[in-house]
Amino acid sequence: MLDTTPLNAAVDRFADHLRAAPQSRLQRGAATEALALASELARRAQIIEGVEGEPRAMPDAGMFAVADQVTVAGRDLALVLKNHEELTEAVALVEEAQKRAGV
Length: 103
Description:
This protein is mostly helical. Helices cover 74% and strands 0% of the residues. It starts with a helix and ends with a helix.
């Protein structure tokens, strides 16, 4: 079984920073960046799981929900990852999104 601790840690770190961020930071783009990340993580999980048809989109539940959306999507992806390469890519996605979000 693949040890997904690095992905879980990166996701938790980003989500914690989002929860601690002021509303003004979320409004200036951090929430948009987080939602885009959650959407991408969810898309990747659906592809790995072999979901038929077009992957379902992550709904925009508002800027105060994006931390939870990142957490759920990241944990879902961690459950289905098959190899170290997929894990490394996912961790990099989270870390890059956090940098772009500025949190």
